[in-house]
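Summarise what follows for lecture notes:
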Amino acid sequence: MRTVVIESPGTVRVEERPDPGLPGPDGAVIAVEATAICGSDLHFYDGDLPLFPVAVGHEAVGRIVEVGPDVRRFAVGDRVLVSSVAGCGACAGCATGDPVTCVQGGGKVFGAGELGGAQSDLLAVPVADFQLLGVPDDLDDEAALLLTDNLATGWTAAQRADVRPGATVVVLGLGAVGLCSVRAAYAAGAARVLVADPVAGRRDRAVASGAVALEGPTVEAVLAATDGRGADAVIDAVALDATLDDAFGAVRAGGTVSVVGVHGLAPYPLPILGALFRNVTLRMTTAPIQSTWSTLLPLVQHGRIDTTGIFTHEFALADAADAYAAVAARTADCLKVLMKP
């Protein structure tokens, strides 16, 4: 089979590897029909996470071509999507639908070393009954792929931000997760979502979803828009030091900062004293993908959350190097790329 490998910063190739076998009697093998590049994949491509070589990708939709004898919920030929984060499926943590709290070593992410990369022809999925979701015929590949990670993460970001009806929410960073966070905040009842991103075209995309674009320095713009009080919640979908500084500066006293961006390996100087005196809640989250599906799937199916306009480009898997270069340019017109084997 073919799989996308990042060999070093900026170097991508499509490598031939042996087809994967079943990862146990409760596992499955998926023929990948659609996969995608996530913003977190760029941390390998940019060299922020120097774990090379790495077979990348954690977003996949496809058909089951093999199942183990212990799989109960799925059969060969079923169309499924794969949670980006895997757990054992049997422990107290996984019982909540949150593989991150798996007591058997914590959640494991596809395409990060231990599990195979989803940007492949085939993907071995352990504990299939826990990791997979059947995809209804009326759900297109783009919506299904967003449920593997980005939409689930944006939804969780809003939930963990304590978004309440009537709230003013700020979203920092308008990649796929940021745009999904905007839509999730409105679905949770936010009255107003203010957005910041250095790329004007990405701000325009958020405005098309009902957001209000901030102009000028973020903290000053938020304070001006809230009569000096600050936002009820700030979602940081970037997690650079600068955006974290903005998040703490823009949130009101008693508000919540929800971080779903992937920070680098260097420590961040957390402003503990100011946050303490202002009663700020800080939550940092890798989304519990499986636990979101029972809520998100019907919301998507019935049009309560729009999944269009997030994917902007499609490439063949063979052209992965070009696809990564396009996403890494972080332009207004290229937001998220779908790849098809």
